[in-house]
Design goal:
6 strands, Protein Transport Mog1p, Chain A
């Protein structure tokens, strides 16, 4: 899980858009000798915008979900050698967004 706060909502949106564009053209990379393959995945819309990416490498699957919420990017991930379930990542992201929004209202 991660939360990254930007100076403004427009800065956060710019970063989110850059990530979306990168995923349109970058389908794999090599990191520390392992090939990482990226595939977009559909996710529930939370916050202002959401996106998901499936990362496969060496028999392991990771699922990362990202939400833009005002000036903040929130992300969660799940996965490993056994099972990567999108529902688990979605629940984690929804919980994280709810907590962020509740704290922001205070």
């Amino acid at each position: 899980m991660g939360i990254r706060q930007y100076a403004s909502a427009s800065d956060a949106a710019e970063s989110f858009t850059a990530m979306e564009k990168a995923l349109e053209t970058c389908h794999q990379e090599t990191y520390q000798g392992s090939v990482l393959k990226y595939s977009p995945m559909s996710v529930d819309k939370l916050g202002d915008q959401s996106l998901g990416v499936r990362i496969d490498s060496d028999g392991t699957t990771l699922l990362q979900q990202f939400t833009l919420d005002g000036p903040t990017l929130i992300n969660v991930g799940t996965g490993g050698l056994t099972n990567a379930e999108a529902d688990t990542a979605t629940k984690l992201l929804r919980d994280q967004v709810d907590r962020y929004e509740a704290a922001a209202r205070k």
